[in-house]
Amino acid sequence: MKYLSEYRDGRVASKMADRIRAISTKPARFMEICGTHTVAIFKNGVREVLPDHIGLISGPGCPVCVTATRDIDKAIKLARIPDVIVTTFGDMLRVPGSVSSLQKEKGRGADVRMVYSTMDSLAIARRHPEKKVIFLGVGFETTAPTIAAAVVAAEAEGIKNFSVLSSHKLLPPAMDALLSGGELDVSGFMCPGHVSTVIGTASYEAVAAQYHTPCVVMGFEPLDILQGIYMLVSQIEAGEARVEIQYRRAVAPQGNPNALQIMNRVFEPCDAPWRGLGIIPKSGLALRDAYRAFDAEALFDLKMPDSPEPPGCKCGEILRGVKTPTECKLFRDVCTPESPVGPCMVSSEGTCAAYYKYSHL
Amino acid sequence: MCVAAPMKVIEIEGDTIRAELGGVTKDARLDIVDERPALGDYVIIHAGYALHRIDPEDAKITLALWKEMGVIDEIPE
What we know:
Oligomer: heterodimer
Number of strands of chain A: 11
Shape of chain B: elongated
Largest sheet of chain B: 5 strands, antiparallel
Helix content of chain A: 40-55%
């Protein structure tokens, strides 16, 4: 498989791990901020081949996990409205809100459907003109342009029964919030591959310069990750803090201007609540006034009080990179993938789910 | 959630393509792609939309660095 197999060669991987060990003298902690990286690092045993003085930690890179309980509650409120069909990506179904989950609502008769793409959601809206079809927009900059494209398509086609509840999040403001908080001990960022396919590297320049923290955009195959770590270690050893792209085949410095243009046409940045990180200025995406007809927040009454996080759940600290799942008292005993308490155990890309599946510490 | 795969374009019809990876095919829209692909090109597909056309020369930059690091002898085609 072109562009995959060559990045999975075990012999090259072992040589690359040798090169990392050969140049690395300083202790370092690198944070990934992408759930796909979290899983790839565990699945490929990346930690096991690194020197002991290099640590890898997970940040707020799982979109389902960072969605605030209140936003889940809003989705549940929508699902309870008669004549509404709620459509969403799979992981959202099982995330517990403060009193229910979309899956439980589905069990009670709500029409909640899992889709692979927003185009599927539009197709449902075309088939059911008598229903209101709402898409739960969750995801980072990789996904937001696909939701924007669906809104533009719905407008062009005159589809009037389709709307979006936007809980989209932007990653660079979260990186800034983590570093400015001062509690995080991190020497470099493993920047997300496909988010950067869309946004390019400009937003990381400020992070690298202001906090003197190297940023390397990396791919998801084992050799991508090892080479990316090699690039971070090289910068640490040289005392540098630059932005580099390891994932050249998928990421250009300027990103994807077409995707950014559609995203900016439909959405505007807004202050947004992140689980564990609180409200981060300009870190979310709201539909612009011109697209109010497609904005579930404008079409339905979704005012509700703040929802508390589940008692004892450490998802917030885990998402900030200040605790690991094994430091949570609920982990593995009370909170499991079959019966999750917090979202980091629900999503297959959640840090707790990855620890549960792959680590037996 | 940001999982995306490099797939080979095997059909193009208007703004929709069919692409293939390891025998599995998927349809994807071209509304947000950075550069329109031709048949036989590889694109990165996410949630039903092509995001990026892979330029083989960009991929070679990474492999050239591996050669420089001494972890491969030759750059594979």
